Structures are given as structure tokens and as C-alpha cells.
Amino acid sequence: MKLLVLLEDHEGRLQKDSLGVLSKAASLGGEVEAVLLGSEVEGLAADAGKFGAQRVHVQDDVLLGSPLPQPRVDALETLVRDGGFDAVLFAASVLSADVAAGLAARLDAGLNYDLTDLAVEDGKLVGKRPALGDSVYVEVGWSSEPRLALVRSGTFEPKESGGSAEVEKFEARFQDFSLAATMVEQAHEESEGPSIEDADVIVAGGRGLGAPEGFAQVEELAKALGGAVAATRAVVDAGWYPYAAQVGQTGKTVSPKLYVAVGISGAIQHKVGMQSSGLIVAINKDPNAPIFEYADLGVVGDLNEIVPKLTELVRARKAA
Amino acid sequence: MKIAVCAKYVPEATAARRIDPETKRLDRSGEGALNQFDVNAVEEALKVKEADSGADASEVVIVSVGPERALEAMRRALAMGADRVVLVSDEAAAGSDLVATSRVLAAALEREGADLVLFGQQASDGDGAVLWAAVADRLQRPLISQVAELTLADGKVRGKRQTEYGYDVIEAPLPAVIAVSDAINEPRYPSLKGIMGAKKKPQETVSLADLGVPAEEAGEPGSRTTVEALGDPPARGDTVKIEDDGSAAEKIVDFLQERKAL
Ligand SMILES: Cc1cc2nc3c(=O)[nH]c(=O)nc-3n(C[C@H](O)[C@H](O)[C@H](O)COP(=O)(O)OP(=O)(O)OC[C@H]3O[C@@H](n4cnc5c(N)ncnc54)[C@H](O)[C@@H]3O)c2cc1C
Ligand SMILES: Nc1ncnc2c1ncn2[C@@H]1O[C@H](COP(=O)(O)O)[C@@H](O)[C@H]1O
After folding, report:
1. Most exposed residue of A90, A108, B72, B155, measured as fewest CB within 10 angstroms of its CB?
2. Nearest-CA residue for atom 4 of ligand 2
């Protein structure tokens, strides 16, 4: 079996999730190669050897300088079409998800997404994924090659195996439409704002708070519990709370002893950032909210009724 | 300006969802609705239309691939203000995966030739959040996904979107494909007049043949992925769910003390 893993980089480092997928690929056995696409990234390529890549294909091109998906589809098409790969593996990120789906259309190749495990059974790659809000598990396969697999974020930890990789450069032509979208302003990692990763207790608020002012009661409760405040993407995107406090796929991954989710539906992209919390308490008025599938204590009710009372009671018991 | 919104018919959020062990497909026999995430895309399309100087000449068309009864759910978009619906409904398209769905949807969009194609954040029954990228590739048009803020000017579209590192701003010339986030806007509620008028708006159902898509390129024959087996998820420990009867706050505090979290 010959596998290819797309590596993603950001500001001079290989992204952790993509190294995790590479490590997993290496554990499946067979030939494992990686591909790195970017501008001035060649120096990073050799690092991939430590995580199990035997060869790293690099296209180093200014046109790949911004994290935009479409030129990457062109590059991968060139590499994969005649590369004889059985499978191409991606770690889900905003960028790589779009690259994987674009490549699926380009090659008419099957893409299984949201995978939480990969295995080789009878010489064939099998993907495993939860579905319907993680309520059933499905084993998925492919009916053609190459098999494209997009792995849920945070699934595999990078493991150094201490090997080294051969670096091989390649070139690909870009299509006009692939270069039509341009980056006007690119995100940079910010270290500003509150740090929630080390908090023992987190109270997180979502769109159920109704308005930015709703965060006042979340802050009160967090203060009473001696914890930090976090938020969902929906409220961060809406400008109610700073991005630095966001938990989830494109935010922070946290594992406090206690996570109180207030007015949060519990989408998978939120879950991946907080599922390893010690205790999860959820308050939501919708009895069908997905968060109840994984909250240790779920309370169906109006947060505006419950949260102020809860804050008082916590204060009283702590004082007692 | 012509704006197409891709919208999916999904099982109602309150309906118990299951996968049929026979067909290994999602059981779609229950009540269905317009995917909530696509309502944001409809709203954004209406805002673009309303802001367009040639608003009278502007059009918002809903494009969907799904069963015939999806038409009724799509009327919600018409009631909000969309102008018409094109539903691709064909037995041969059932069971389509990403490769097959993107082919059918791209063919329907090709026929419309919209300046702007909008997608929602994700389908609530699949959580793929990827279809747009496959469709943009087939249409050979620039793509911006996860857009939380959209602006149009001088034949260009600009999107602000969140990644793992913060916010990017990306620009693309029209025609373009845009996928919006669920926080981009607050969708309007349909007015009574809107609801009354919706039934009379054009609603067209087309087949694969109408689009020139061979039956073997859709549905299961046109798909490249398979479902091999179904199983139960790993046990997730004890979860307790209670209804608030006025004493929920006490119960939470008791629980926290019992678990030594206070
Ligand atoms: C690529 C990608 C990456 C993403 N990354 C992230 C991420 O990092 N983090 C993240 O959080 N999301 C992320 N998302 C978005 C995610 O899919 C959800 O859209 C988002 O988490 C929803 O936020 P929410 O729970 O605040 O809002 P909603 O889903 O709107 O939920 C609000 C909840 O509040 C409840 N509610 C309303 N009023 C009350 C009341 N009075 N009392 C009690 N409950 C009430 C409602 O019942 C509802 O369940 C991502 C999505 C994509 C596609
Ligand atoms: N059958 C469909 N018909 C029309 N649009 C769809 C269909 N399935 C998905 N979409 C669109 O694609 C978006 C992402 O879907 P998905 O990638 O399946 O999560 C949805 O929010 C819709 O805008």
C-alpha cells in the first residue's frame, strides 16, 4: 500500500494534526509519503521524516504562499494522477477540507470525511466515522482509487519514529480560476486575550445567550466557580466575544476538570475542542440539542432562569 | 445580479434519526425541513439582492437536489423572499455521495449561470461542510468558504472568515462560490404575505436527463464511497438529563459537590 499525506504549515511550523495523520499512516505500514505545498517551505520538509514519511514531495512556489485551497488542488492533481497512491490522507482544517473536496471532484475520487479512525483490513483501507451527531458508528470504504480520507481534527497525536525523509521537488501548473481568489489579509496567531487552556473550570457561552450582554451572567458564574470564560464560533463570528476565548476545531482545545456549557448546541466542531473535559454540565432549552449526547449532567431549561440562581448557590455553598 | 442558493432537504431536527440497516442510507421517511444552516445563505442572498442597485433585475434562485417532497420545505425560502426553486429530483440520484452530488448540483448550477453561488455552513444530517469545494472545482470558479462577513463591490466579492489562526480576508472576482457561516446574519421570519405568495412562485422539478447527467454518474453507481457496516458508538459513560422544574440550579450544585467539582 502506498499512502500520501498532505502536510499543512503555518508560520514556519508543520501543523500538528497533519503530523498526527502522518504518524497514523506510518503505523498502518507500507510506503508512506507526504506532500508539502507552500512558499519557502522546503526547509520544513525534512522534519516530516521524523514522523514516518519516507519521501516528501515539495512544491515551493510563491503562488502557494497564501493558505488558499484551489491552487493546492492543481498541485495535488499533478502529483496524485500518476503517482500510484492507494490513498491520500488529510487532517481536517478549514484549508485542507476544501483541498480534499476539490481534489475529489477533480479526480472523481471518493472522499470519506469526519473520520475518527483508519485501519487496514484484508489489505484494504477502512475508515471509521461517527454519524448523526455521533449516535452511530459507520465503517466506510471506497469503490475506486485513490481513496481520499479527511480525518476529524484532533484525532491522531503526532508520534516521532525517528526516521528521515528524502525530499523531492515537483512543479505543477495552476489553472486560471484557481488563482482568481486572493488573500487580502491573512490571519496570524495572536497571543493576546485571555488564556483558557490552563483553567480548571470553564464556563462557556453560545448563541443561546441571545445578545453580547448575555455574557455578563456567564462571567458572573465563572467568577463564582473560580473559572475562565469561553465561547463558541457562532458568537465569536458575530462579534460577541473575542476569538482568543473560542473553543473548538478552529479555536482552542481545552480539558478542564469542569466545563459548563450555557446556550450551546454542541456541534461536532465545538465538541472536538472540549470533549476531554472531566465533567461536562450543559444548560439548553432544546431537549434535542446534540450536547445532551455527551454532557455528564444535562439540564433542559431556560438559561436566564437557571444561571443567576446557580451563581448565587455556588457563592453560598463556597462561603459555607 | 443572479444569485443561486444551494439548499438541502434534511430530516427535521426533532425527528429521531436513524440509518436504515438494509440500505445503509439515512432513513428519510420522517418529517423533513430546509437545512437550518442554509437559511443563513438564503438570508444573505436576499440582502445582496436588496442592496443591488438593479434589485428589480436581481434574482434569487434556490437550487436543491433531493426527493420530491423537498419542494414543500423549499417554500420556506420562497416565503422569505427568494424568487424561485429548481429541485433536481430523480430516483437515480438517491444515495449520491460527494462526488455524485457535486456532479448533479454543478450541472443544475451550470444551467442557471448565476453570478454568485451561495452555500450554507453544513448539512445538519451529514456535517460534511465540504460540498462547495467540489462544486466550485466542477464549475471552475473561485471559492471562499466559512464566510462570516460578505461584501460586494465592483464585480468582486470579499469574505472575512475564521481559520485555526484567526480571521482571513479573501477576495474573488464574480462569478464566485461562497459558503457562509451560521453567524453571518439573523435570518428573517417569513411574513404572512410571504407565506401566502410562496405557493405561486415558480417551482420547477427537473430530472437528471433534463440536466444531461447520465444516470450512471449519479446515485450509487456514480458514487465512489461505500458504507460497509454500522455499529454502536463507544459507550460514553453515564449521562443524566433532567428537566428544569425550578430546582435545576440546586441539582447542578448538588451534582458538582457529589463529584467533588465544587
Ligand atoms: C470548519 C468549521 C469549523 C468550526 N469551528 C468551530 C469552533 O472552533 N468552535 C465552535 O464552537 N464552533 C465551530 N464551528 C461551528 C459549529 O458547527 C456550530 O455552528 C457552532 O458551534 C454553534 O454555536 P452555538 O452552539 O453557540 O449556536 P447554536 O448552534 O445556534 O446553539 C444555540 C443553542 O442555545 C440554545 N438556547 C437558546 N436560547 C436558550 C435559552 N434561553 N436557554 C437555554 N438554551 C437556549 C438553543 O436551544 C441552541 O441549542 C465550526 C464549523 C465549521 C464548519
Ligand atoms: N442535496 C443538496 N442540494 C443542494 N445543496 C446541498 C445539498 N447537500 C448539501 N448542499 C449544500 O452544501 C452545503 C454543505 O453541505 P455538506 O458538505 O453536505 O455538509 C449545505 O449547507 C448546502 O448549502
Report:
1. B155
2. B64
- Between helix A69-81 and helix B131-139 the angle, nearest 10°, is 80
Alpha helices in B52-185 (DSSP H): 70-80, 98-112, 131-139
Residue nearest to atom 14 of ligand 2 (CA): B122
CATH 3.40.50.1220 maps onto chain A at 201-319
A251 lines ligand 1 (CB under 6 A): yes
Which residues partner with B64 through β-bridges?
B87
Q: Total domain count for chain B? A: 1
A241 near A205, Cβ under 8 Å? yes
Residue A291 in contact with partner chain B when CB distance is under 8 A: no
Residues facing residue B241 across a β-bridge: A298
Ligand 1 closest atom vs CA A266: 25
Closest CB from A102, A131, A293 relative to B133: A102
Q: Which of B167, B239, B259 sits opposite A294 (nearest CB)?
A: B239
Instruction: Give me the total of CB pairs closer than 8 Å, taking one residue from chain A and one from chain B.
Output: 285
Burial of B34 (0-12, 13-18, 19+ CB in 10 A): buried
Residue B257 inside a domain? The answer is no
CATH number of the domain where residue B61 is located: 3.40.50.620
Task: Enumerate the CATH 3.40.50.620 domain ranges in chain A, comma separated.
Answer: 2-179
B219 pLDDT more than 90: yes
Q: What is the mean pLDDT of residues B211-216?
A: 98
Among A130, A187, A318, whose Cβ lies nearest the Cβ of B163?
Answer: A187
Distance of CA A172 to the CA centre of its chain: 28
Rounded to an integer, the average pLDDT of A115-138 is 89
Read off the pLDDT band of A52 (50, 70, 90).
Answer: very high
Give tens-digit pLDDT for A98-117: 999 999 999 999 999 999 99
Give the range of the structural domain holding residue B70, as residue numbers without chain letter: 2-222
Cα gap B262→B247, rounded to integer Å: 18
Q: Which CATH class is domain A2-179?
A: alpha beta
B128 or A193: whose pLDDT is higher? B128
Give residue-wise pLDDT tens across range B38-78. Answer: 999 999 999 999 998 776 789 999 999 999 999 999 999 99
Residue B215 Cβ contacting ligand 2 at under 6 Å: no
User: Which residues of B are less than 8 Å from A106 in CB distance?
Assistant: 137
pTM (2 d.p.): 0.96
